[in-house]
Design a protein that fits this description.
Elements (H helix, E strand, L loop, with lengths): L3 E2 L3 H5 L8 E4 L10 E4 L24 H13 L10 H5 L6 E3 L18 H23 L7 H26 L22 H16 L5 H4 L7 H16 L8 H13 L14 H9 L2 E2 L4 E5 L25 H4 L5 E3 L1 H6 L7 H4 L3 E8 L2 E9 L32 E5 H16 L3 H13 L12 H15 L6 H7 L3 H15 L9 H5 L11 H6 L10
Antiparallel strand pairs: 1-5, 2-3, 4-7, 6-10, 8-9
């Protein structure tokens, strides 16, 4: 696969960089269902260099340009700071791979001390439904547009998939949720009851499977920022694994997860599009350096620029990355440190450890009352709690000048390594510890120069343990760990055990790292329905324990 430069070729291809021109006027009401999509400005490459123009009209979709801008508005939700730009990057996905490294931070979602009035929770809910509303409006109007049918079909497929994906984020985080499949007809249309989550999942897989036949291949798109057939297939495998686990526990869905993962690893027809990048760290350098590698990175959240002329930069590498006081070098807060549990699970030869977990800190010179990075110094073997998440390193950013708080770094949603491990998991659950399952596991470990553990896979139970462990090591700090622990129905027990281990072994100054694990109870398998939602929607009820 050829690595593409995001700032050259892909600037024009990635039409959804038009995010500052795709906006929404809405009333503050339930689900953002009363939102009216506004879209304006034409032309792709220069969107982010213009001020937003707001257009409201019922018959907006008149040509292919309108369709492209409308689709950009649906994608726009992904990069919001309330979604993957911040909340799902860090605040709502803390698990046993990292802890919030501020001793004074005792209230908030990152330490599981929050309630239904917390803005992080309500904002995620609001923006996901806003994305669904945008998709519903788009799908209700796109058929009337005169444009090449192949392009129209692909656009519909992307919109249908994104609508399903936003429902997936909702149902996996809140359980039963209102299923919304048509545009809101009235600002008074707000009393919508929760749909049983099995019905929501059935809708999700139906929509995604239909979208798979419409969207383009990864090779045709040439970038991981848009939804390809491979992205749909991989996310379908993830959705079916969730359905096979808690809370539905429908083990028949393992076979469906296996089917969709196999379509990527062992394609039925056409060339194989995906493979592991031989160098683990290069995956993340590419995200910082504005390069696409569709071989490994199948789907990623798109961020762009430095907020000097656009508003789609995110906080990847800034909030969760290396602590750094030098703005020119790449300012970082280092909010998330790795747990010693994660550090200890890597083998001595595993090259992932010292990239995933930063082994050093920066040291500075004082120049004109500013701290300027002059070097770095390694942590000692006793300083395990001091180590930041190291996957997202701002030093590799190519967009200048660097913004203190926002970065152009993309965030991984689906990597080929994840697909291999989903294949291994589903194959093991359906057929036991076969050579297909162990080969997929071995391929991931071989890339990391980790020891071969396949000889230990003497039973389904033992291979299950090895695969779960491998997901912990490979996908740390990618927003997957909490999701995995919940679907395996071990989130509470693992977090509580982590807290006990920290309290028993951590230096006194780092005992606060146990706070999140101590606070987690069974109710944290789901988020609370936001207070505003409950106050506006007479058909809504609260989740148990909240």
């Amino acid at each position: 696969m050829i690595t593409q430069n995001k700032n050259t070729k892909m600037k024009a291809q990635s039409f959804f960089k038009a995010l500052s021109s795709a906006s929404v006027i809405k009333k503050t009401a339930l689900l953002s269902l009363a939102s009216v999509i506004l879209l304006g400005q034409t032309g792709c490459e220069k969107f982010l260099e213009k001020d937003p123009t707001f257009i409201v009209k019922e018959n907006y979709y008149n040509n292919e340009t309108d369709v492209n801008i409308g689709l950009a508005g649906i994608y726009d939700i992904m990069g919001k700071e309330e979604v993957y730009g911040g909340a799902l990057l860090l605040d709502l996905n803390v698990a046993d791979d990292g802890f919030y490294s501020r001793s004074a931070f005792t209230i908030g979602t990152a330490v599981y001390n929050f309630d239904a009035s917390t803005s992080t929770v309500s904002n995620l809910w609001r923006f996901l439904y806003e994305g669904i509303e945008r998709a519903n409006v788009f799908l209700s109007r796109v058929d009337q547009v005169q444009m090449p049918e192949a392009n129209k079909a692909a656009a519909k497929g992307e919109a249908k998939f994104l609508r399903a994906y936003y429902h997936f984020l909702l149902v996996s985080n809140w359980g039963d949720i209102p299923l919304k499949t048509v545009p809101t007809s009235s600002v008074n249309d707000i009393n919508i009851k929760r749909t049983p989550q099995r019905e929501v999942y059935d809708f999700i897989v139906k929509e995604m499977e239909e979208a798979e036949g419409l969207v383009k291949t990864a090779t045709q798109l040439g970038a991981g920022g848009r939804v390809s057939k491979s992205a749909v297939r991989g996310v379908l495998a993830r959705v079916y694994l969730k359905m096979a686990g808690a809370p539905l526990n429908d083990v028949s869905k393992y076979a469906e997860a296996l089917k969709w993962a196999r379509k990527i690893v062992y394609p039925d027809n056409g060339p194989k599009e995906h493979r592991l990048n031989p160098d683990f760290k290069q995956i993340f350098i590419n995200y910082a350096a504005d390069k696409y590698d569709i071989g490994e990175s199948i789907w990623e959240v798109e961020f762009f620029g430095n907020r000097g002329g656009d508003f789609e930069a995110g906080r990847v590498g800034n909030t969760m990355g290396l602590q750094c006081n030098d703005e020119a070098f790449g300012y970082g807060y280092g909010f998330i440190n790795a747990t010693p549990k994660l550090y200890a699970r890597y083998g001595a030869t595993d090259t992932r450890r010292d990239w995933t977990i930063a082994p050093y800190q920066y040291v500075y010179n004082n120049v004109n009352n500013l701290q300027v990075v002059r070097d770095s110094t390694f942590w000692t073997s006793a300083q395990l709690y001091n180590r930041n998440c190291g996957k997202y390193r701002r030093v590799y950013e190519v967009v200048k000048p660097k913004n203190k708080n926002y970065t152009p770094m993309n965030f991984p949603l689906l990597r080929y390594a994840d697909v291999l491990l989903m294949l291994a998991e589903a194959e093991n659950e359906v057929n036991g510890p076969t050579s297909v399952a162990t080969a997929a596991l071995k391929e991931v470990r071989d890339r990391a120069s980790a020891t071969d553990v396949t000889s230990l896979a003497t039973s389904k139970e033992e291979l299950r343990r090895l695969i779960r462990e491998e997901r912990f090591l490979e996908l740390a700090f990618e927003g997957i760990r909490k999701f995995d622990l919940i679907r395996w129905d071990v989130f509470t027990s693992e977090m509580n055990q982590l807290a006990r281990d920290i309290q028993n072994t951590a230096p006194t100054t780092f005992r606060f790292a146990a706070l999140a694990g101590t606070n987690v109870t069974l109710r944290h398998n789901l988020l609370p329905i936001p207070v505003l939602e409950l106050s506006l929607n007479n058909g809504m009820t609260q989740n148990q324990g909240w």
